[in-house]
Amino acid sequence: MSNVALMTITVLDTYTDMTRILRATPAQRPELLRAMLESVRGLYRYFPGEVDLVEQHQQAAGFPIDRDEQQCLDALETLAHADAWNRMQRALDDALAVQLAATPDLHAPDITVLFVLGDPSDSHFMDVALGMTGMGGISGYIVITLWPSPENLARLEATVVHELNHNLRYSPGGIVWDPTTVTVGEQVVSEGLADAFARHRYGDELGYARIGVPHLANDQVFAKVVSGLDVTGMQNFAAWVHGDVIAERFGATPVGLPTGAGYAVGNRLVDAYLEATGQQAPQVLHTPSSEIIATALRALG
């Protein structure tokens, strides 16, 4: 029996945990939050030194534990009413089945999914990131931080499936992500592939990552990002992929790009590759980014 048959995806019941945290006394909340986050400590296995999970949560615009309690509790009820946790579990299970049908030799570890409410008072998270961030590139773990706006609620399935695509691309036996040699082109392509997979499942209206949509047809943005595809070193990626405003938030150097530029360009490159080769998104999970870029740029002239 292959390891694939034993693979499971578990969306943790963070509704119960977050409700308990927000209803606890302020003094109790840090340790309760730390206990909830312990399930994804392995996500930070490549970080230097010991990671403070509560501090990491706060830096990533996770829900506050010193204010806005009622607003956050109300948002949790909105998510519960929308059946968010079950919807994501079904979407992940269905997407995995689709991916396995296209790549039956896929081997990947079990995946733990942590769904966390975001910080409604963080203007960068709410206005620039549009109330959603995802982290799925570390094999075995997915973290979604989200504020339940109508737009984000409608895209729950597409959002988590996007992150699943990242997780499976970089699982053992797939594409190797070496922080010192990986290129901007790899991350740009990976965002395009993840969006293409989400669009394959849910259509263009829901499948695009929202931050990249305004720039899909912008030829100047396309040319600028293409000029940086060979840049190496993860510390240089933020501006090329996420844009200057997000890069500056994390202390990175801006390069003259709008928010979500790399997502928009990744979609154009991947779409050109799929059209040129006659393939669909699930079939190209592990296709090297260099091949996708070369074929796409030839096709686009």
From TrEMBL:
<dbReference type="Pfam" id="PF10026">
    <property type="entry name" value="DUF2268"/>
</dbReference>
<protein>
    <submittedName>
        <fullName>Uncharacterized protein YjaZ</fullName>
    </submittedName>
</protein>
<dbReference type="InterPro" id="IPR018728">
    <property type="entry name" value="DUF2268"/>
</dbReference>
<feature type="domain" description="DUF2268">
    <location>
        <begin position="106"/>
        <end position="293"/>
    </location>
</feature>
